[in-house]
Amino acid sequence: MGKDVIIACDFASAEQVFTFLDKFTDRKPFVKIGMELFYAEGPNIVKEIKKRGHKIFLDLKLHDIPNTVKKSMAVLSGLDVDLCNLHAGGTVKMMEAALEGLTRSDGTRPLLIAVTQLTSTDQESMEKDLLINEPIDKVVMHYAANAKKAGLDGVVCSPLEAGKVHDVCGRDFLTVTPGVRFADGEIGDQKRVMTPAEAKKIGSDYIVVGRPITAAEDPVAAYNRCITEFVD
Ligand code: C5P
User: Fold this and answer.
1) Per residue in 212-221, pLDDT tens?
2) pTM for the complete prediction?
């Protein structure tokens, strides 16, 4: 898969997401469905959006014992999502089990990426709450290397980390990066941001963009601007 823009569809209901997606009559965007929408609407929302011709990143961040994750991934694979994820903190064994569960009988499977440390976790909370005393950058790269070792396809990371992840795990290891804002746009609650053009330069494979598109006056124009800056 080449570079693409994934729209974070952080809506609370199917109705809202369909009203939003109806605006896109030309190119069908790659869509991220998160926990809020999935828990509100259930697996049907995935099937419905898929039926409309969109690729889907199902962002449920699984983290449990290997056997449970394996069986749950088999269910998600049956929903025909294109990309899904888990927490690398669940260990290499859990990630290997997830891949097994995800792989269909014909050998095909959705792409699988790992969350390393959440960007909401900082050095202090990692040390205090998790008793991890290494520098956070080192922890993130170690978790990325574990994901690669387990056979995963990439990681979710800040665009600022994408270059380093590629240095450590190779150019083919995917970096999927949120925290994207237009140069002239609102930053909101994101702290470390990059423009789509900068994310392209630094080597992100996919950017995940939410509010700069979903809250824009003209979402289709904002999406097209992302495509122009990041993909074309
Ligand atoms: O609206 P915004 O562009 O900030 O949305 C970014 C999306 O990426 C949200 O769905 C958010 O939950 C997700 N995300 C993030 N930072 C991470 C991981 C996921 O912003 N580290």
Assistant:
1) 999 999 999 9
2) 0.95
- Homologous superfamily of domain range 4-230: Aldolase class I (3.20.20.70)
Give the catalytic positions in this structure: 61
Q: If you average pLDDT over residues 39-49, what whole number do you get?
A: 96
Q: Is the CB of 121 within 6 Å of ligand 1? A: no
pLDDT at 152 over 70: yes
Q: In angstroms, what is the span from residue 59 Cα to ligand 1's centroid?
A: 10
What does the domain layout of the chain look like in residue ranges? 4-230
Residue 34 near ligand 1, beta carbon < 6 Å: yes
Ligand 1 touching residue 161 (CB < 6 A):
no
Q: Rounded CA gap, 7 and 31, in Å? A: 5
Q: Would you state the pLDDT for residue 1?
A: 55
